[in-house]
Amino acid sequence: MSQVIRQRIADLGLVLHGPHPPHDPLVAVVIFERTARTSGQLPRIDGQLTCIGHLGNDVTVEEGREAAAVCALNALAVLEEALGDLDRIERVMSVTGYVASAPDFHEQPAVIDGASAILFDIFGEAGRHSRSALGVAALPRGGAVEIEVVVALKNG
């Protein structure tokens, strides 16, 4: 295994803090044909949530953006565990980001940009993806941000 993506992560000074698998009977990643989809990933480091609350109340856009980046890295951690090697990823296809939001908060895209930017930094052009950034009333365990990632896999 060439570990090109793992080296890119190290070169960027990033760390995969997971994997943080979901509870039974859920799985962290579903692989079907040449597509892999993660379950929602919260901003966890060493098993602890790093960003709790609601954007527009007690969490700033920058804190939310940083949390989204952690979520994206956690998505890569579960993908690495499921695939055995991140170099099996041909491209990032889509990201769905959920932002726990105060009723008058409307900057969800700016928050989820943290996940999109980190995936682009790691995968380059293959990291460009479609995306949805949704505001929600609450997320599991009080997390401020949750990310799901869908990737296309290389043949073989």
From TrEMBL:
<dbReference type="Pfam" id="PF14588">
    <property type="entry name" value="YjgF_endoribonc"/>
</dbReference>
<dbReference type="InterPro" id="IPR035959">
    <property type="entry name" value="RutC-like_sf"/>
</dbReference>
<dbReference type="InterPro" id="IPR013813">
    <property type="entry name" value="Endoribo_LPSP/chorism_mut-like"/>
</dbReference>
<protein>
    <submittedName>
        <fullName>Unannotated protein</fullName>
    </submittedName>
</protein>
<feature type="domain" description="Endoribonuclease L-PSP/chorismate mutase-like">
    <location>
        <begin position="36"/>
        <end position="136"/>
    </location>
</feature>
